[in-house]
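Sharing a chain and its predicted structure for anyone who wants a worked example. Both blocks are below, sequence first, tokens second.
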Amino acid sequence: MAGKPITLGSTIITLIEPHRGHEVACNRWYEEDHIYAILLGPSAIAATRFVARRQEKAMRQVAPGLDPDKGSLLAVYWLVGDGADHAAWRKPNRERLERDGRVFLDRDFVFGFVGPFAFSLRRDASGVPAELALDHRFPHAAMSIIELDQQYSRDEVSRAYREGCGPLLLGPRSPVASCVGFFVKRSPDPGDRGAPPDAAESNDELVVLWFCDTDPSAEWEDLVRSQRDAMVSSRVGTVIWVSPFIRTVAGTDTYMDELSSATGG
């Protein structure tokens, strides 16, 4: 009897910046401990990590008020369902990790997102399905954050991205093999001791992950311009942050000495 198909339902995405001099320790903590601590939660099915070196940060395009130098280590988790059971599990689990001294403090929390799956697009009809995108180990990726106009429904936003951006980003010679989008809310830093705003009160944003099977740097400006122009034309949202990344090399400290930007961030 065939088992129930696994269907991508939601995501957790975090972007952090290790404090200067703590890059290696932060990388090892995340790779050897934290990523597995999160994967143990209910409904989690996959995870992977990417890194932004100086050269990736130099290609970032961000809205005023956002720091292009902050955010080196990207972690992405796939969950089945809406993630509610994982969210309920995370709070007591976080408290246990804190008691056990397993929360790394020498880092800044740049972005955290949680939210449901919106859409996926593939360059090739036989390409990697969204559910397997993290396990496929694409060598390059990019992340876009799109601030949405709240007058448009999620269906309208998804359709606008699929129809406006899809043909421009996923041409036959594009380095982008697939796009996977999520409607997200900002998540507060789980390590904060203060009282961050409730993530449920924030407006929806669209986060789109581009998974690339070749280095997108040569086509980067065209890709970013195409997405921005399509969003402007559709009026459903504004791209406020977009950056390329390269996959971390598991079991090594590769790239950890290449995180600081030319401006010293």
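Comments welcome. The domain at 8-247 is CATH 3.30.70 (Alpha-Beta Plaits).
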